[in-house]
Amino acid sequence: MRTPMQAPLPSMPSGEAGLPTTRVPASNCASAARPDEKMDYAVVMIAPPLHRVRTPLLLLLALLWFALTTMPRTSHATEEPQYTVLRTFGKTELRQYAPYVVAEVVLKVSAQEAGGQAFPILAGYIFGKNKGQKKFEMTAPVTQTAAPVTMEMTAPVTQSAAADGGTLVQFVLPKGVTLESAPEPLDPRVRLRLVPATQWAVIRYSGRWSQENDDEHLGLLRATLAQEGVATQGEPVLARYNAPFTPWFLRRNEIWLALR
Hints:
Elements: E1 11-12, E2 21-25, E3 41-45, H1 55-77, E4 83-89, E5 92-97, E6 100-107, H2 111-126, E7 142-145, H3 159-163, E8 167-172, E9 191-195, E10 198-205, H4 211-228, E11 232-240, E12 253-259
Antiparallel strand pairs: 1-2, 2-3, 4-5, 5-10, 6-8, 6-9, 7-8, 7-11, 10-12, 11-12
């Protein structure tokens, strides 16, 4: 005579809510049988494999719909520096920016590493790591230069930092914040600076934050400006408008070149 542990465990019809069931030895399910009922097996429902359930797909579609319908509006609601569009060439704009104040840090790392290392430093300042523990709303964009630009353009770095290959990353402070009213950073690496009124040539694009994607659109920007006879100066500035968890196809990326 075969013991319950030696007996096969046949599959059973679907239980409640359509979930599949199986049989397990009653000894493993003490509450399965009534005191006056002798059971060798108890029927229990089991969770199906994730890939066989439609719920994750429906959830994914719901999240995608939410992103497509709400994220663009959220992006536009984020405060940006004021600018006026002077001319447009396809995807390229010539913009006149009003002055604004930034919190910035210069790191002696590559452009690919700078964003991840600079973000917690600058975020610490705007979220209260300053004298007075003042907090600011997050604005856009976060900008960085693959190489330092000149003092006349955005006044970001000294010549010694440029010689060491420093990478500049800037957070824009909200409208109305001045150098006089902005609280002093507690982190000595963070500096406050007034960015003067500047004219920029800008190309806007989506996609992943990769060197390949940035180089492709920088080439398009330079080619368009050359065709239109627009002269620029200095190094390109990368501008990121979205959080890292934003889907790549919804991201707003820009490259800026200062007009000569």
